[in-house]
UniProtKB/TrEMBL annotation:
<protein>
    <recommendedName>
        <fullName>ACB domain-containing protein</fullName>
    </recommendedName>
</protein>
<dbReference type="InterPro" id="IPR014352">
    <property type="entry name" value="FERM/acyl-CoA-bd_prot_sf"/>
</dbReference>
<dbReference type="GO" id="GO:0006631">
    <property type="term" value="P:fatty acid metabolic process"/>
</dbReference>
<feature type="domain" description="ACB">
    <location>
        <begin position="7"/>
        <end position="91"/>
    </location>
</feature>
<dbReference type="Pfam" id="PF00887">
    <property type="entry name" value="ACBP"/>
</dbReference>
<dbReference type="InterPro" id="IPR035984">
    <property type="entry name" value="Acyl-CoA-binding_sf"/>
</dbReference>
<dbReference type="InterPro" id="IPR000582">
    <property type="entry name" value="Acyl-CoA-binding_protein"/>
</dbReference>
<dbReference type="GO" id="GO:0000062">
    <property type="term" value="F:fatty-acyl-CoA binding"/>
</dbReference>
<keyword id="KW-0446">Lipid-binding</keyword>
Length: 92
């Protein structure tokens, strides 16, 4: 379990690691990362450009599905997903 004082640091570290990934990730996994990140950093302050493309619509929908999730929980979920994805790829 992550100590609350270290949550922001752990989240930032996980984000850096995921940002540097060079292997192909499934689109649904990338959407999960996006949604958890947006919920962790912006909360329920949804903003969507109605004239955007299909990819933007999928990203917005993934984020909207997390409506009401506290930032702390979104950060924990992001970290857990990052650990799972990075560990799985490391073992392959």
């Amino acid at each position: 379990m992550i100590i609350p004082e270290n949550l922001n640091t752990a989240f930032e570290n996980a984000f850096e690691k995921v940002s540097k990934v060079r292997f192909e990730m499934a689109p649904d996994i990338r959407l999960q990362f996006y949604a958890y990140y947006k919920q962790a950093t912006s909360g329920d302050n949804f903003a969507h450009n109605r004239e955007s493309n299909v990819i933007s619509a999928f990203k917005f929908n993934a984020w909207m599905q997390l409506k009401g999730m506290p930032a702390k929980e979104a950060k924990k979920a992001y970290i857990e997903l990052a650990n799972n994805v990075l560990t799985k790829n490391k073992n392959q």
